[in-house]
UniProtKB/TrEMBL annotation:
Pfam families: 5_nucleotid_C (PF02872), Metallophos (PF00149). The keyword Protease does not apply. The keyword Nucleotide-binding applies. This is 5-nucleotidase. It comes from Levilactobacillus acidifarinae DSM 19394 = JCM 15949. Coiled coil: none annotated. It comes from the Bacteria. SUPFAM superfamilies: 5'-nucleotidase (syn. UDP-sugar hydrolase), C-terminal domain (SSF55816), Metallo-dependent phosphatases (SSF56300). Residues 323-479 form the 5'-Nucleotidase C-terminal domain. InterPro entries: 5'-Nucleotdase_C, 5'-Nucleotdase_C_sf, 5_nucleotidase/apyrase, Calcineurin-like_PHP, Metallo-depent_PP-like.
Length: 517
C-alpha cells in the first residue's frame, strides 16, 4: 500500500510575515513563512509516502507587502515564483486576485517558476504565458497522479477588461466534467485544485448563496464522479472533511493553516481517505526564507510609515464599525468624497470592508491608507434609475437584523458561511432612511436627492468600485453595460492624489443616513 499526502495552501494574499501591518510591531498567528516551515516538516521523506504540494491561488494581492512589490518595485515580481520554488510546490493554480495588477505583472511573477501553473477553465491562458496547461501528471512512488487546475469563473465580473485580454473563462463544473473522466484514463489518482468555494451547505445541500457561478464546489462534489481529492479556496473558510465520499480542504487565508488530504492507495485505487487542517500559529517562520525576505519587509515597513496627508475637523478614526455602518462616518464620507471628485457623479457608495479597518489619524500614513483600503479597486461611473438605486439600498438595508430584545446585529447572510461585510455600502449625495422594523425589501422609507424625493424613472449617476459596478456582492442592478466612464487609477492612488491637492483635509460627520430600530 502507498500513502499519498496532498498538502496545500490557498489565499495567502501576500502575507509572508506574521503581521497584519497595523503597526510596525504587530504580531499575528499566521503568515506564509509559518506555512512554509510546516510544509518542510510535512515534506520530510517517509517510507511508502508520496507528497504532493499545491498552492491554490491568490498570492499576488492583499497585503501591504504585495502592494509595495506591485506598485513600487514591479521588476522584482519574480520573487513570488522564487518563493514557491523554495517551498517545493508541485503545482500552482491561478486565483481571481492574481489578475488584479494586470497580465504583464502576473507573467513577471511567474517568470522563474519551476512548477506548472494550471488553468483548465481559462481559454487563452497558455497563449498569454500565465499557464502551463489544464492539468499536470505527476509520477511519484510508482503512481501517476493527475492534478486539474480550476479558477472561479466569475473573474470577468470583477476584473478590469484590460487585465484579462485574450482570456475566456468557462464554468468549473463543465470543465471538470470534461476533464476528470479523461484524466482517469491517464492517471491512477485525480486531484482537482479549484480556486473557488461552495455555494451550498456541504452536508444538507441547501443553497448558501445565489447560483452565480462564483462558487461551484458543491456541484463539483455532486455532479463530477471520479474526483479523488478536492482542494478549494477563495472563500477564506476553514474546511476539512469528507463530503460525497470526496476528501475536501479549504485552509482559510494568510497562511493560517495548511490543508492535508491523506489517501491510502492499493492496487492503484484509493481505499481510504482523510482530510484535516494544520494550524500554523505555533510554527516559527522558516528561518531560511525569513532571511531571504527580511530586507524587503524592512523596506515595506519604512514605506508604510511615510505620511501622505493631514486631517483636521471630525475624527476619521473608526472605533465602532457597526455604528459607522448605521450612521455613516467621517472616514467613509471622505472616501465617498474622493470617489465623487474622481468620478464627477451625483452619488457615491463605499464600504467599510471589514471590522479591522481603523480609518485615519490626524497625520495620515500610507500604512493607515492600505490597512483601511486594502484592495486595488478602480472606479466606475454608471447611469441608473431611481428604481435601481432603491433596489441597491434595499440590499444594503438587509445587512441588519433585530434581535428579540431590539439589538441591531449583522444579518447571518453577510457572515455565514463567509464573512462579507464589504457587501454593505454607505452612500453620499442622497438622504435616506431605513426602518428595520419593516420586512426585508421594504425597509427604505425615505430617499431624497437635493431635498426632493427620488422618482423611479429619475436618471442619476453613481460612482463606486469596479467590483460593485459589475454587480459583485449580489447587486444585479449594477452592470457593466451601464458604465458611462471608468477611472483607471486605483483608489489608493486617488486618495494620495487628493491629499496632494488638499494637504490638510477637514473631516466631516455625515447626517444623510438614518436607521430606525
Amino acid at each position: 500500500m502507498t500513502h499519498i499526502k496532498i498538502v496545500s495552501t490557498s489565499d495567502v494574499h501576500g502575507y509572508l510575515f506574521p503581521t497584519n501591518y497595523s503597526s510596525r510591531h504587530d504580531h499575528q498567528p499566521y503568515g506564509w513563512l509559518r506555512a512554509a516551515a510546516l510544509l518542510r516538516q510535512l515534506q520530510a521523506p517517509t517510507p511508502d509516502t508520496v507528497i504532493v504540494t499545491i498552492d491554490n491561488g491568490d498570492w499576488l494581492e492583499g497585503s501591504p507587502l504585495a502592494s509595495y512589490l506591485a506598485t513600487q518595485v514591479p521588476t522584482q515580481a519574480a520573487l513570488w515564483s522564487q518563493l514557491l520554488n523554495a517551498g517545493h510546490y508541485d503545482v500552482g493554480v491561478l486565483g481571481n486576485h492574481d489578475f488584479n495588477y494586470g497580465l504583464p505583472y502576473l507573467r513577471a511573477s511567474l517568470a522563474e517558476r519551476h512548477y506548472p501553473v494550471l488553468a483548465a477553465n481559462i481559454a487563452g491562458a497558455q497563449a498569454q504565458g500565465i499557464s502551463d496547461g489544464p492539468y499536470t501528471i505527476l509520477e511519484k512512488g510508482g503512481l501517476t497522479i493527475a492534478v486539474l487546475g480550476l479558477t472561479t469563473a466569475y473573474v470577468p465580473h470583477w476584473e478590469a477588461a484590460d487585465h484579462l485580454t485574450g482570456l475566456t473563462f468557462q464554468t468549473a463544473l463543465a470543465t471538470a466534467q470534461t476533464w476528470v473522466p479523461q484524466l482517469h484514463q491517464l492517471a491512477d489518482i485525480v486531484v482537482v485544485a479549484y480556486h473557488g468555494g461552495f455555494e451550498a451547505d456541504l452536508v444538507s445541500g441547501t443553497a448558501t448563496e445565489p447560483a452565480t457561478g462564483e462558487n461551484e464546489g458543491s456541484q463539483l462534489l455532486a455532479q463530477v464522479p471520479g474526483i479523488d481529492a478536492l482542494i478549494t479556496g477563495h472563500q477564506h473558510r476553514q474546511i476539512a472533511g469528507v463530503y460525497h465520499d470526496v476528501p475536501v480542504t479549504q485552509p482559510g487565508e494568510k497562511g493560517l493553516a495548511v490543508g492535508v488530504i491523506d489517501l491510502d492507495v492499493a492496487d492503484h485505487h484509493v481505499i481510504a481517505h482523510r482530510a484535516q487542517l494544520l494550524k500554523t500559529a505555533t510554527t516559527p517562520p522558516d528561518p531560511q526564507l525569513h532571511a531571504q525576505t527580511s530586507r524587503l519587509e524592512a523596506r515595506v515597513q519604512t514605506w508604510l510609515d511615510q505620511p501622505i496627508g493631514h486631517l483636521t475637523g471630525a475624527s476619521m478614526a473608526v472605533n465602532d464599525p457597526l455604528a459607522a455602518r448605521l450612521h455613516g462616518h467621517p472616514y467613509l464620507e471622505f472616501i465617498n468624497r474622493v470617489e465623487m471628485t474622481a468620478g464627477h457623479a451625483d452619488i457615491a457608495a463605499t464600504a467599510l470592508f471589514n471590522d479591522q479597518v481603523l480609518g485615519f489619524q490626524p497625520t495620515v500614513t500610507r500604512r493607515q491608507l492600505l490597512n483601511s483600503y486594502p484592495y486595488p479597486n478602480t472606479l466606475v461611473v454608471e447611469r441608473i434609475t431611481g428604481q435601481e438605486l432603491r433596489a441597491a439600498l434595499e440590499r444594503c438595508a438587509s445587512f441588519f437584523t433585530l434581535t428579540n430584545d431590539g439589538q441591531i446585529q449583522v444579518a447571518a447572510a453577510f457572515t455565514t458561511p463567509k464573512v462579507q461585510l464589504y457587501n454593505y455600502d454607505v452612500y453620499a449625495g442622497i438622504d435616506y432612511t431605513f426602518d428595520l422594523h419593516q420586512p426585508v425589501g421594504h425597509r427604505l422609507v425615505r430617499l431624497r436627492y437635493h431635498d426632493d424625493p427620488v422618482r423611479p424613472d429619475q436618471q442619476l449617476t453613481i460612482v463606486m468600485n469596479q467590483y460593485r459596478g459589475h454587480g459583485g456582492g449580489d447587486y444585479p442592478m449594477f452592470q457593466s453595460a451601464k458604465i458611462i466612464r471608468a477611472i483607471d487609477s486605483d483608489m489608493v492612488d486617488l486618495v494620495q492624489q487628493y491629499f496632494q491637492a488638499h494637504p490638510v483635509v477637514t473631516g466631516v460627520t455625515p447626517h444623510n443616513l438614518t436607521v430606525h430600530a
